[in-house]
Each structure stands twice: as C-alpha cells, then as structure tokens.
Design goal:
Layout: E1 12-15, E2 18-21, H1 32-49, E3 58-61, E4 64-67, H2 75-90
Antiparallel strand pairs: 1-2, 3-4
Length: 107
Amino acid sequence: MAIHSEDHFLFGMFWQGQYFIDTALSFGLQSAPFTFTSIADLLQWILENTSYYNTPFLEYYLDDSITLGPLSTNACHHDVSSCIHTFADWGIPLHPCNSVILFLLGS
C-alpha cells in the first residue's frame, strides 16, 4: 500500500549519512498489517454491499482474494473484472503476475 508523499517524512530514517524513506507500507512495520487489513475490509465491504459493484461473493485472506459463483455463469469473471477495474479507478495497484488465477472445482 503506497504512502502519500506528504507523509513520507513519517516513514524515513537517517543511517550512515544517508536518508532512507519507505514509500509503501512494510509488513515489518508494527501497524502495517492492521492498516492494510482495515483498508482491505473497507474495500471488500464497498464491493459487496453497493449495487454499483455487485460482487457478493468476494472474500480475502491477507493479500489474496477469492470470488465464488455458480457453474455455467459469468459470476466469477464479472467479480474479478469489477475488482480489477475498480482498483485501477481508485489508484490501488495490483501485481500483474498475481491478479487473476481461476480454478474450476466440480463439473
């Protein structure tokens, strides 16, 4: 999760004559997991509970998400597409190699 440039001074340190500034939350930072989870909870709630996004089966664990849908429908594709487009619109970066992995269980 990116840190706003106005807050960079809060995440910097001076070591061996050089300044180092974190521009994204590090999971070594004590409050980072709580902050990340709070933001993820909010995003999930918005995506699930507003009719505009309509992604009722979205779940996440840490930094991974899953969506569920009935067989022979486009529910999962819709949910994944909605998330990708919404995150892009909101400026939330997704790693391109880990954005979409779909598994079909059952027949």
